[in-house]
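Researcher: Quick one. two chains, 1180 residues in total.
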Amino acid sequence: MVMKRYQVGFNNISAMLLLRRCHNLTRFGPLNTQRHLVAPAVTSCTVRLWSSGSSEDHRSYQRAHGPRWRHALAGLLAGTGAVLAYGLYHNKAEQADTVRVQPIEKTSALPIFTQEEVTSHRSLEDGVWVTYKGGVYDITEFVAMHPGGDKILLAAGGDLEPFWALYAVHNQEHVLEILSEYKVGELSAEDLKKQQTIESSDPYSSDPKRHPVLHINSLKPFNAEPPPEILGDSYITPSAIFFKRNHLPVPQVDPASYKLHVDGLPGESLTLSLEELKTRFPKHTITATLQCAGNRRSEMNKVKQVKGLNWGIAAISNATWSGAKLRDVLLAAGYRPDDAQWARHVQFEGLDKDVTGTTYGASIPLNKAISEEGDVLLAYEMNGEDLPADHGYPVRVVVPGTVGARNVKWLGKIIVSADESSSHWQQNDYKGFSPGTDWDTVDFKSAPAIQELPIQSAITTPADGAMVNRSNEEVTVKGYAWSGGGREVVRVDVSVDGGKTWQVAELKSSEKGQEPEPSPSPGRAWAWKLWEVTAPLPAEAQELEIVCKAVDNSYNMQPDTVSPIWNLRGVLSNAWHRVKVKIREDESEE
Amino acid sequence: MVMKRYQVGFNNISAMLLLRRCHNLTRFGPLNTQRHLVAPAVTSCTVRLWSSGSSEDHRSYQRAHGPRWRHALAGLLAGTGAVLAYGLYHNKAEQADTVRVQPIEKTSALPIFTQEEVTSHRSLEDGVWVTYKGGVYDITEFVAMHPGGDKILLAAGGDLEPFWALYAVHNQEHVLEILSEYKVGELSAEDLKKQQTIESSDPYSSDPKRHPVLHINSLKPFNAEPPPEILGDSYITPSAIFFKRNHLPVPQVDPASYKLHVDGLPGESLTLSLEELKTRFPKHTITATLQCAGNRRSEMNKVKQVKGLNWGIAAISNATWSGAKLRDVLLAAGYRPDDAQWARHVQFEGLDKDVTGTTYGASIPLNKAISEEGDVLLAYEMNGEDLPADHGYPVRVVVPGTVGARNVKWLGKIIVSADESSSHWQQNDYKGFSPGTDWDTVDFKSAPAIQELPIQSAITTPADGAMVNRSNEEVTVKGYAWSGGGREVVRVDVSVDGGKTWQVAELKSSEKGQEPEPSPSPGRAWAWKLWEVTAPLPAEAQELEIVCKAVDNSYNMQPDTVSPIWNLRGVLSNAWHRVKVKIREDESEE
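Model:
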């Protein structure tokens, strides 16, 4: 099931990749007909791309197209659940071979290289070589085409296996076929043996067990969401079904030896053990909703394919979080008001890392971090228990009102800085663009990193395509609503006629039967509201189009439709949520 | 011109007033056919309303319908430029007379009353009497129908003239006709003489001169906006054309005797002269955009008539403001952090007042008022000069990022309080409701007072209906964009094909040819951005539908269409702005 979803992604994405270069087509049809549709149109493009046989030609191509090309692709692999374009690539390669100046001879005996020789090829200038299961490959020409962007250069001069283990999407026959095109030799037996002893097994093998009810969007790294009707059933989402959004394997952290480092402030840096974090600072508890920037991305995919995990409406959940206030820890680390003269951001580094040692990273504005009312926590409890492994054990940042991506899990380091995090996830991912911006024209520096999220709501029940019996006479609609920046949801409008007429839903800010939580002070409404409304079934209708839209206390509203907010990364999908429900005429009882 | 606009308002509103009571119709047609359409449908309703001849019947009607009715109507008169329903009323009255139990004899000699007798009738229980030019009127039955709500009770027991002078909309033949229906006697000659000597002349006679370019929406009180193309021409709006939104006559304030009172904090209250305000506190300057909650209301009126001034797109302007920080003044008045335990709001009272002495009032949340980053000013300069009379001379509040209505002008008093301002403008006006909420169902307590405004943008040029020559080959589109709460506008998308495809506009944060202002820190982007984009004329098109939509740094977007955000007060009108432009095929030159 998961694999199939990837497969679909590949084909679609690969078409886009090519189309971006060729500008011959702007839309493409259903997936299964994809190759046939695309192939004729792109021949001239593949020729151009692949006829550059000499390295001089190659470099001039790189100069002309490479940086933007690579820039545009950056982060696919790392940030988004890794969708790759091998299906199409393969298709292209078949055609390209016929026009290649000097096809590589794959059957002849190839030279033997030492690891040292391989390691000397780790740049576009010196060539980019890698090894894989004893083979040596010159992938210089492939770098610009790698859907995961220049992250591929991290493997330059070394072995691919640890990377492919990390991003399981590479475990595809297509990928091996592509790689085989680039084979230039064999690794010496001695070096291969060394490599095999060093390389670890599946880095995801120690990931925790997960609840079987979750819909899995990606297994490695693990990304999953609960079924909407279960999500909408609890004001506080049980941790086991709280949506999971991992970028890398779950790190194993020993609480006894855990250290949190606070750097960047004048004077010595502060290092805290878990025990110190728990005992030196007051424990604060907040109820806060976290939402992935990609929540509801699947609706954007229906408009036009975007890059990223195909989230439904449940990449959002609500929990209580307890921990030390980041503000208190920064003050203990020596932060003084004067530091606001130079400091602008607080960066976070996770303990989750890829094989190169690159950790997950993000940052938030200093004023959010240091504000008494910002309520940023270094949380060590979720819903009254130790953080689960998937949610950042032993310590994560909870930045209420802010996109999930900044709520760094398995927190290892805090850095007060004049600059934003330089991480890929801050600089080239999790940003919103105009619907008119495509991968050819995107300038990642032109948009701010997403921090506060806009007003959002969705219908958790009934599900799209559900049936309602006519004899019920009415339909009960339930959902969630939330806004970023601590803006409180003040109203949810629901329509059962596609948006022509509207009813106001009842808002709930507690579990069923419990007292509502006290009203938050202005700008500190971190938790969602669940809502419910019962509408009579219109006499004539055979189908209902149920729509919801929420309003926050800045009176921000959701946009009506998806197309005008479509963006190439499929983030910030917050148009009115719509589900269609059929009315079943009951059989008369005799 | 102004009068004509009112006339239109009356007819439409009057139809709505009646329809609300009768529930017979939900929509109504063009204005000129209004009376004929409505009259037959409402007969049963007018009978019900008017057949309650006895005061007992009347009171039971009041108990059943009065409070909600009056509540729903509250504030029309005072808050919105005063639209009244006399046209329809008159129509109803004609019909109603035929079924009234005891029609009043208007021609016979009527009794003489003293002022004391009149004054004894100032409640629904005792009857509501008023005088007008020597006549005495029992308007008890009219109270529930007064489009200005129960503000009419302020005149109970006294003379109408000062009120009618204040709200010039009463100066209509219809109004006198309605009033005549209620005549019950004459005021004694002696009391009439007293009254005439007391009563002042037109309270608006000392209003300042205004720039003739302004489009006037209401003369008394003065409400006007600049032409869009002039507005969009300057990053800093010249004070003379900055939109004017007065609720009452402009007060004459002597700067030498001016006192600002700060109340509500423990200990003695603080009183400051203008000189003290200027010298005891550091002078801060900010550039901030103010916007009326009713900006772009005219677009809502096109969907369905709402109540309020028929603003175009220019009830928004940008200026520099200098003054003392409210925070500094509150600290000087004895504010301590502990006060946040009980204090929640900071109320403001203007020196502009109606004949009963009721001043304009509003409040903002305490955390906005006291925050170092809230930048709330007690401003005494606008664009480098003393505040103009229309903008609050000598001192006004500037609450950047917050709806114009809270930026109280001619500031007289500041009150730190556990409660919001009890003013009509805070409690029953300037709130947003669902499109499904009408005057019958509205519960003003159910919505929060508008504070921060949502993302907004509009096209200042070309104007709707403009012509573009085909030979120009392209069209340049300009406009403004702004968001409340200090959220910075990060992008404006512009379409010339009604929203199918989009271009990104260039943003400007300074006057032409000047350096852009430095980027504001997060949450402190108080000023708008002007924007501009040039788009090629589509080859085939004969007409362009130009659309703009803006995005702020919380990635809030504008809703696509007006209908789903329509609300009975016509506030918060921030759907995509659309103008249609015709392409003129040039005559070929021979």
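Residues 57 and 63 of chain A are 10 Å apart (CA to CA).
Researcher: Thanks, that's what I needed.
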